[in-house]
Amino acid sequence: MSTLTTLEKHKLKKFIRSLELIRGRHTELVSVYIPAGYDLNKIINHISQEQGTASNIKDKTTRTHVTDSLERMIRHLRLFKNTPPNGLAVFSGDASEREGKPDIQVWSIEPPQPINTRLYRCEQTFQLDILKEMMEVKEVFGIVTLDRRECTIGLLKGTQIAVLDNITSGVPGKVKAGGQSAQRYSRLREEASKEFFKRIASLMQDHYLELKNLKGIIVGGPGPSKLDYLNEPYLNNQLKLKIIAVQDISYTDEFGLRELVEKSQDVLAKEAITEEKEVMQKLLKQLAVKPEMIAYGKDEVLNAIALNAVDKVLISDFVEDTIANDIEEKAEASGAKVMFISLDTPEGVQLKEIGGIAAFLRYQLA
């Protein structure tokens, strides 16, 4: 199952947020999930039967809300000739914030990934878990930085880098003493290194071996220590087969994990974090070299959109929904592409610092 694009994820998140705000007085909000390829007429017949059941609800207000919601949903579903390719999620209920003045509405979405579950629910809140699961990043990467003194074990999930463990070895540094002292220190260092590598292997096994959807492991570190570790039988063979890249980097702490991801962009070329970093690095370079081809800030970007001068708009997750929605709608209407940028990378934070909205221009504005 493919990872959602930033735009798909944002639209789905916006849809979910709007429905999360609605609360029923009782179990009166209707949620229906129609799987991809399922006969729409069967769903309509099922909802009609539920209308008959709803007529037995004792509370008059709840009975009216449920039967009206089901009627609105049936009418809405009749607008579709067939079930959309990815299925359909449909919701209906009273959206009014004023008691005694109902506002029965219906909402539907063809999700960006196929629905595999048929579901009918009538509850006090809409059933949104199936849609929320689609937004979760399904595949993760293990990222490990190490030398003989320190190791940091982490996860890359979408655009997020999480530290799972950081350990130090206590391996003594090299000494200048000669003779037997040098040999003894060398032997101590080697024994301590072996014990440290065994600890690393044990922790990697604890964190990664049972991890579902582990797509691969990337290992990095300064000097030859990482290769010494990987070339010896410390690591579980199942995990060793998951290693997709080994990189030379300068650090072994949390900053090292970020450096490791930076150095592995070719390996992570299809991942969300790389897509965001690439477009943001292009934006920052353009700002430095040809700033006249970039607009940033809400007013400047909206003006450029109105002049049909925008090729692509970048919107930070930091931007308020109402503003983001307005810019997104106007940009798409003008034929411009839209991309939403998280705050999980340094580049994403930089977009926030210049107002959270920026655009690549098709031509220079006067």
Description of the molecule:
This protein has 366 residues and is α+β, with helices and mostly antiparallel strands. It folds into three domains: 130 residues, 2-Layer Sandwich (Translation, Eukaryotic Peptide Chain Release Factor Subunit 1, Chain A); 131 residues, Nucleotidyltransferase, domain 5 (2-Layer Sandwich); 89 residues, 2-Layer Sandwich (60s Ribosomal Protein L30, Chain: A). Helix content is 42%, strand content 22%. It contains twelve helices and 13 strands. A five-stranded mixed beta sheet has the order 7-6-5-8-9, with helices on both faces. It has a four-stranded antiparallel beta sheet with strand order 3-2-1-4, with helices on one face. A hairpin with a 2-residue loop joins β6 and β7. The protein is globular and about 90 Å long. It starts with 5 loop residues before the first helix and ends in a 5-residue tail after the last strand. The mean pLDDT is 90.
Please mark out the parts with pLDDT under 50 across 5 or more consecutive residues, or reply none: none
Main beta-sheet annotation: 5 strands, mixed
How does CATH name the architecture of the largest domain?
2-Layer Sandwich
Q: What is the CA-CA span between the terminal residues?
A: 46 Å
Predict the CATH topology of the largest domain: Nucleotidyltransferase, domain 5
What string, H for helix and E for strand, traces the elements in order? HEHHEEEHEEEHEHHEHHEHEHEHE
Beta-strand fraction estimate: 15-25%
